[in-house]
């Protein structure tokens, strides 16, 4: 990317607020992807990707749900002005209110690299469903597509272990 680009985060957050959009990709290069995300209050899935992630909370607070190597769900609270490092391969679910903004930086996707989106049963914590995508362009919004696929299918939302059906939001 030449010449080097300057990004003013306040302008980006104002633009997202004014347009009601949820994500603005700042850059997408082979070794670096950066975007600002607005409000993830609706998230229920865990995202798994092959890249380390760096999160900076620009405004407000994030509850970052993640799953330990043993499979337990835990939460780290990231307050405004704080940063978090999430190691590659860790299932994570960033949840924050509509008036909150986060800067996320990660490695660009490699050719044929697969992003996974996993939902767990709220009753027995068994794996409900997994969506997989090759994300050649992050602007294609793989999260929204995964959500559509999951919530439009009662079969995907039905737990094979206990029979519980996760309701639509």
Report on this model:
The protein is mainly beta. It has one domain (about 10-150): Jelly Rolls (Sandwich), CATH 2.60.120.10. Helix content is about 10%, strand content about 40%. The chain contains 2 helices and 11 strands; from the N terminus they run αβββββββββββα. It has helices at about 10-20, 140-150; strands spanning about 25-30, 30-40, 45-50, 55-60, 60-65, 75-80, 85, 90-95, 100-105, 115-120, 125-135. A hairpin with a 2-residue loop joins strand 1 (about 25-30) and strand 2 (about 30-40).
Structure keywords:
169 residues, mainly beta, Jelly Rolls, five-stranded antiparallel sheet, 2 helices, 12% helix, 38% strand, 3-hydroxybutyryl-CoA dehydratase, 3-hydroxyanthranilate 3,4-dioxygenase activity, 3hydroanth_dOase
Short description:
12% of the residues lie in helices and 38% in strands.
List the topology elements.
Blueprint: H1 9-19, E1 23-29, E2 32-38, E3 46-48, E4 53-59, E5 62-67, E6 73-78, E7 83-86, E8 92-95, E9 101-106, E10 114-120, E11 127-134, H2 142-151
Antiparallel strand pairs: 1-2, 2-9, 3-10, 4-7, 4-9, 5-6, 5-8, 10-11
Protein name: 3-hydroxybutyryl-CoA dehydratase
Organism: Bradyrhizobium retamae
InterPro entries: 3hydroanth_dOase, RmlC-like_jellyroll, RmlC_Cupin_sf
């Amino acid at each position: 990317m030449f010449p080097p680009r300057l990004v003013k985060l306040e302008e980006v957050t104002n633009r997202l607020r004014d347009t009601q959009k949820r994500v603005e990709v700042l850059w997408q290069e082979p070794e670096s992807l950066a975007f600002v995300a607005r409000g993830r209050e609706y998230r229920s899935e865990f995202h798994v990707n092959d890249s380390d992630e760096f999160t900076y909370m620009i405004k407000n607070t994030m509850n970052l749900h993640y799953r330990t190597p043993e499979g337990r769900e835990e939460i780290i609270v990231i307050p405004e002005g704080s940063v978090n490092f999430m190691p590659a391969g860790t299932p994570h679910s960033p949840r924050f209110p509509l008036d909150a903004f986060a800067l996320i930086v990660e490695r660009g996707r490699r050719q044929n690299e697969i992003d996974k989106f996993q939902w767990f049963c709220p009753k027995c914590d068994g794996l409900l469903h997994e969506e997989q995508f090759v994300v050649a362009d992050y602007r294609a919004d793989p999260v929204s597509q995964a959500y559509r696929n999951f919530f439009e299918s009662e079969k995907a939302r039905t737990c094979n272990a206990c029979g519980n059906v996760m309701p639509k939001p």
